[in-house]
């Protein structure tokens, strides 16, 4: 079992309230089971939606972190995936479209003692909320972002999304979409995200492993989860889910392991002559030329090059953790500044109100 | 130059001067300093204000500067000015028109001369009236020489040359030395008005402590200006304005933005909650962000967000976690925050939203004042989304207004809109420093125990079970055991807070949210009417920064033998419970506003009282004399002459 140390709660009325609740409710429970995280709310996704699989995986996985449910907060935006908080017996906020990372930033920056999660989708995070996403990533606030990417707008009934492939025929693009999609992993790395991973909804083991590493990461973690929308974009990820083609076109990322993939390890990743990466046939290159995956490289260029291997039709899609580097977190640094200020000049409201230039009028 | 006749009260003969200098006593003076944006007029004005405050005059200031950081030198758009009104009695406005205009260049003269009444004192920097500078602003001939300024008392002083001479041994180059001419000017004015000078010397030492050469040069220029006044024959008269009688106590000079920021710090301290400010820089609100950023030792966290939306969103997140969430902006920022403000209404979380209003619409007049966001504050959201609205009336009052906004937000678990404006933000006045122990107690009680029972008999937490008196919902914060709950923007079921699309529930919740805000009226004082004569038939009602001009206008009217009542609203939503009844007592009600009649529209709609709107949107405060004339006409047509 992993145990995430969240540190001490804030002082003052917040700490008092927490202490009072522990007196009446008993000690914090960290020995949770998946069922402890379920709520009495009926789950209202379409039958067969990939979101169910992700919800189950998260509920099964979270107890392993050793965090009490009252110390977890899930913030979401708008979209199918954003219903997630209602189904989790933690604190939660189902907010407004695109703003979840900003709301979570305010919460995490003022309460470093909480485990804050954002659940968002490709429309929520990359369209209306694109600005908040990149700034949250660059700041490295301690929060985890689960980006459910189904490459379609589901809740508004099937328009193309910023991750839809060019030429996507939808209700709003009867002649095919014109705009080039975002690659969410490339975008996050461009914002210098300290942790970026990718997983498949149906791959419980792979998803749990990426989530575990994200949870253990100190700072902002972005996990792109490929999620099937069986109503408006069914089979979007079949190429990678199918046992045969999946092996052929997925590149599993394992830290410290050579990037070899495909049936019988027939394919591999090597450096190209421009400092990027390219796919090669394993038997055509020297074993020493095969790139050994290193998620801890400070320079994001390598992880970015990895993210560019895949095409919009999902061939050569790396799955796993692209990047995981340590950097000071925003919330910690903010708390340190407050502490430093308190130490160097203790709070004295009377002195503050008086300022340095006063005069006295006598009776 | 004043409302009373100047009288020579003393004559002094300085030992170094061969001629007699006289001292004239005045009861009040309005000085306007005008120069290029780069001339340091705001700094000079602020220093003169500090000297005046510490001398004990009552005062009011009006900074007026362009939105451009440095418009081309010497041009009309680049003119920046600072007006200061100070007196030996209680005053309410920065003055309708200056008695003294200091023009540092031809552009400053051209832009401001029309405001200086005939006979007013006009001091100019003669060195700047070069053919090139004159041509820049379209003067065909030099006004200092062509007789066009004969109607004013022109004193033409080579300020630049004198400054350079004073700094000849400073070791500074010409360009650098020239920069001190504002301090030379300040020294001259300090002599003219008998201002104490130690504060400015201390200020300069502090300001340039890492550049002792610059500090020394500025102090030398300041002293040279003072001594120049003392010895030159150009100024035969200096003026004395006695300290104003003020309530006993300790005072400081304070601007609206400063007072507002300190009010927020105080609200944090009095509630015991950490303050979290999420803000995006915007004129004229940025100084609140700057000020709060300096007070981390009070547990104040400031977050410069990526945009206005993230500013309010982060504050909502912090409020969910138990902080006093605050976001500060101006009108365009409120437009961007509207949707998130609706979320705060729906989730019923405490939040203080500060709108330092400026001229609009769109980018409008970033550095000028206006009151045109009232209806936006009231209604600028989708759905029925009531938000309490309050407004400060003067720069120092921003402190109390901020505490009141926090009180309402914390007590009623609601976002509160605090409407300041550009004039209050940058204007300054003396402030009697409050006793910390006498500030309101804002302590809150977080919910820590279940407040209901589930169907199966187990205790459960109902996040939307309301306090019967305030209708506020419980505030349970993450980390509190057993109180896990989910909130959001979708309609809430009564009590449980679960998602509900039930028609009757939506109707109930919409009315409950409105009733909660309406109920705040029970916690605010009744309408304060100022009618010293007690027989007024005409009332003037206002809100926000018009308090000063309306009050000054009412005083003029009363001095003319007429009666008038002044009502000034702090709470704009909800109004004081007795407001309708109060308004109906008067034959006529006039509502002056720096918009096109927003408060009068609300009053007419709510009370069916024929409120007459008088409006102006010039980006500047009302002039008291003009307001007095308008109100006087109404009084005379109502009463048939003086009462």
From TrEMBL, chain A:
Q: Does the keyword Chaperone apply?
A: no
Q: From the UniProt record, which GO molecular function terms apply? A: magnesium ion binding; oxidoreductase activity, acting on the aldehyde or oxo group of donors, iron-sulfur protein as acceptor; thiamine pyrophosphate binding
| Keywords attached to this entry | Oxidoreductase
Question: CDD domains annotated for this entry?
Answer: TPP_OGFOR (cd03375)
Q: Which GO terms describe its biological process?
A: cellular respiration
Outline the extent of the Thiamine pyrophosphate enzyme TPP-binding domain. 78-225
Pfam families documented for this protein: TPP_enzyme_C
- Taxonomic superkingdom: Bacteria
| PANTHER family from the UniProt entry | 2-OXOGLUTARATE OXIDOREDUCTASE SUBUNIT KORB, 2-OXOGLUTARATE OXIDOREDUCTASE SUBUNIT KORB-RELATED
The entry's protein name is 2-oxoglutarate ferredoxin oxidoreductase subunit beta
UniProtKB/TrEMBL annotation, chain B:
Which residue numbers delimit the Pyruvate flavodoxin/ferredoxin oxidoreductase pyrimidine binding domain? 274-496
Answer whether the UniProt record assigns the keyword Iron to this protein. Answer: no
Q: Please name the SUPFAM superfamilies in this protein's record.
A: Pyruvate-ferredoxin oxidoreductase, PFOR, domain III, Thiamin diphosphate-binding fold (THDP-binding), TK C-terminal domain-like
Q: Which CDD domains match?
A: TPP_PYR_PFOR_IOR-alpha_like (cd07034)
Instruction: List UniProt keywords, sorted A-Z.
Output: Oxidoreductase
One GO-annotated biological process of the protein: response to oxidative stress
The reply to whether Aminoacyl-tRNA synthetase figures as a keyword in the UniProt entry is no
Q: Which Pfam families match?
A: PFOR_II, POR, POR_N
Stretches assigned to the Pyruvate:ferredoxin oxidoreductase core domain: 536-612
Q: Where is the Pyruvate/ketoisovalerate oxidoreductase catalytic domain?
A: 38-227
Give one GO term, molecular function aspect. Answer: oxidoreductase activity, acting on the aldehyde or oxo group of donors
In terms of InterPro entries, this protein maps to: 2-oxoacid/accept_OxRdtase_asu, PFOR_II, Pyruvate:ferred/Flavod_OxRd, Pyrv/ketoisovalerate_OxRed_cat, Pyrv_Fd/Flavodoxin_OxRdtase_N, Pyrv_flavodox_OxRed_cen, THDP-binding, Transketo_C/PFOR_II
State what protein this is by name. Answer: 2-oxoglutarate ferredoxin oxidoreductase subunit alpha
